[in-house]
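Q: Can I see a sequence and its folded structure?
A: Here is a first one.
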Amino acid sequence: MTFWTLFSYLKTHRLAMAIILVLLIGETGISLLIPYLVGQFTGLLSPDSSPIVISGMPLSLDLAAEDAWQAGVLWWVLGIWVGLLILQMGLRFQTGFRTNVIGAQLLTQLSCKVYNHIQALPLGYFVTQRKGAVIALLSNDVQVVSFFLTGVLTGLVPRLAAIFMLILLNDVKVFRFIRDQ
């Protein structure tokens, strides 16, 4: 069986796999956005940091101050952070659920094909083969192929997207640094 033959089993699941890829990329984006936002927020907590100006109002988080504006901003930042964590959790759940559904469907499809092929084999085949090898073919080998198609290949997408996004963010910082010089 070639690599492209394995992909042919995913043809019937193209739309579902496309949705999974979008969910994975979204989850990866949020995974990279959360530490960035937390870093920006903790930079405001530093006593040496200069305030950020939003709509003409300077914003610096002096936690000892009782200013309502700063307390409101603090709650907004925490709310955005918690919201992103909940969104990431929801995306991760949807990705896992949809991947497992496709994996179960592929497992059923491959098991039926293997079972039909085994039934079509001549009786002499079973005389020369060990019983355990045939049973392993029906159970374990099909599960390994199904896991490869739904687990390993979909696991590559977030890693590649993270590498791409990190390179993109790094290039943006480098271009800002060059422009500001």
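Q: Show me another, different protein.
A: A second, unrelated one:
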Amino acid sequence: MKAQAISLDLVAGLAIMLLLLSYYFVLWDTFTEQYDAAFRKDSADVALISISDQLVSSPGCPENWTLDPDNAPCIGLASTPNVLDREKVDAFSNLSYAYAKRAFGLDQDFLVRIESLDGARYSEVGAESNSTLVSEVSRLAVLDGQTVRVKVRVYG
């Protein structure tokens, strides 16, 4: 063979290299999407636990945040841990979604429901979302002498 411009070996080598490079990019994209979904799920779970703990265990700050709810740096519903204060639950129910979201420090959508064990609703703040990534936790507490379920849902 005399002075061929492109040899068959070169073409075969380039084809194999391009095939392997394409395979690498497909794998990279797949793993990046999986990592991103796992990271968003973990973020939602951390926010979820923090919010539910804050609502059920803390009186908020200041403790009388219901006097000026628009300027409260943090919202809590408890008079003592796991015992909810009716006045705070009512004030929480009247908060706007945007303010509650800001007070919780959330970027994601959320939904908080306080309901009796048989399903009667006392309060609901937040909005449902079409997100496929949903984290939810339920905490038991006492409101007006009755056991209630505080459900917190965060959408990724």
